[in-house]
Amino acid sequence: MPHERTTITTRDGECPADLFTAGDGRPGPAIIFYMDAGGIRPAVRGMAERLADAGYVVLLPDLFYRYGPYGPFDPKELFKGDFRAVIGPLVATTGNVKAAEDSEAFLAYLDGRADVQGDKVGAVGFCMGGGMAIAAAGAWPDRFAAVASFHGGNLATETPGSPHSYAPRLKAELYIAAAENDGGYPPAMAQQFETALNQAQVRYRAETYPAAHGWMKPDFPVYDEAAAERGWREMLAFFDRTLR
């Protein structure tokens, strides 16, 4: 599996990133992978690699670059203690608005690669990254064709940069995969988010998986293999339909 490590210059500094491509050497559509709050670590790189194996050029930027060096963290160990106390200072350095701004540089980087097919890209985000992926697509609507969000939280809040506020600008099609009994995305919030999408006539499909928040991440204590494999099938079918 071809894997490169690079640094992308953003408005705020130097962002380390991983780039994964399929092993056959053929160009493919690009997908930007917006990480969860656990940061860059082997499990996340493995997920990006699996997506690249399906024929995509996958960019995995380290959205905590403003913080400086950290980890890598082991989520199973973090969840035994005060997860928020450890991760909070890193999360505070980014957010939906900053990730959307960073995406300008990510898109420019992908534009300079000969192995990227087409000028429309996809995005996938997990947990924290779900909202970031939606915000990026709203900030750069002519560039994103498809966005998948898995167990994304806080998708409709009063906070500036809330993902639902980007709905009127979205041109991408969305796939929203929610978790059951998710305190970060309760039914009332899901209804508010979907109402915003409906009012803006955004194409989307929303599903609730019988799994806990974080079920897609293989290094999370709540990882659910059956639900995760279903999520992978849905994600790949979604991107194959919208990006190829």
UniProtKB/TrEMBL annotation:
This is Dienelactone hydrolase family protein. The keyword Secreted does not apply. Its EC number is 3.1.-.-. It comes from the Bacteria. Gene3D superfamilies: alpha/beta hydrolase. Keywords: Hydrolase. One of its GO terms (molecular function) is hydrolase activity. Residues 25-241 form the Dienelactone hydrolase domain. InterPro entries: AB_hydrolase_fold, Dienelactn_hydro, Dienelactone_hydrolase-like. Pfam families: DLH (PF01738). SUPFAM superfamilies: alpha/beta-Hydrolases (SSF53474).
